[in-house]
Amino acid sequence: MARSVLITGGNRGIGLAIARELSAAGDAVAVTYRSGEPPEGLFGVRCDVTSAEEVDAAFEKVEAEQGPVEVLVANAGITRDTLLPMMKEETFTEVIDTNLTGAYRVAKRAVKGMLRMRRGRIVLISSVVALSGSAGQTNYAAAKAGMIGFARSLARELGSRGITVNVVAPGFVETDMTASLDAAHVERIRSNIPLGRMATPGEIARVVKFLVSDDAAYITGAVIPVDGGLGMGH
Predict the structure, then answer these.
(1) Taking every annotated instance into account, which residue ranges of this chain make up the domain Ketoreductase (predicted)?
(2) What's the total number of domains in the chain?
């Protein structure tokens, strides 16, 4: 039976790859997007995860279209990179509000239905920098690290209700975000990756697909690195 799936930030990059992967597996997939157009063939809902009202409205539309959300992937995120001495406070809080508090907003809303169903899968998309750190990304790394503590606490809260909560921590992935980096910077990054290359969005998507499958029913509170070995030791 098709499950109702919601992926935030699902109109491009990793989020879109996850949406395509789960849709191909037979799930009913909805994606949120903040700007642009919804992806072809997927149910799209415009939503800014920094607004609790928009999150609630998005869930209502998804529930009306395909039923209560049984699988949530919190993927929506932004970067506002700059070194701390030059970082304005709103630059810090904007990233926290979107990446971390946004995940709280969508998880809180999704859990209501999951508790009634006594089943569910929640996956938060974090990052290798959550544990390794990254110069110029104190805001982003703090948000992505916060997702891990949030997910593990939530996993303890929800485990007895048949709901799993896990984290995927991608390394550097071939997306629009990394395409904007200059070639020398990309080469420095690649030289530190044991596998010697960036990931494709599909490689992240297939790990998420596993975590929301029946095969991962006994995995919760886990942080799964998909980073080519970049974050080893963390």
Answers:
(1) 3-176
(2) 1
In the sheet with 4-7, reading across from the earlier edge strand, the strands are 43-46, 28-33, 4-7, 71-74, 120-125, 163-170, 223-226
Contact 73, 15 (CB under 8 A): yes
SS3 content of the chain, % helix, strand, coil (to 5): 50, 15, 35
Domain coverage including residue 72: 4-172+201-226
Tokens of 53: 């009202």
In a domain, 18, yes or no: yes
Which positions are annotated as active-site residues? 140
What angle (nearest 5°) sits at the alpha carbon of residue 27, between those of residues 73 and 156?
A: 40
pLDDT tens for the chain, 234 residues long, are 799 999 999 999 999 999 999 999 999 999 999 988 889 889 999 999 999 999 999 999 999 999 999 999 999 999 999 999 999 999 999 999 999 999 999 999 999 999 999 999 999 999 999 999 999 999 999 999 999 999 999 999 999 999 999 999 999 998 876 777 778 878 888 899 999 999 999 999 999 999 999 999 999 999 999 999 999 977
Q: What tokens were used for 43?
A: 């149910």
Q: Is the sign of the CA dihedral 8, 10, 15, 18 positive or negative?
A: positive
- Given a contact cutoff of 8 angstroms between Cβ atoms, the answer to whether 25 and 5 are in contact is no
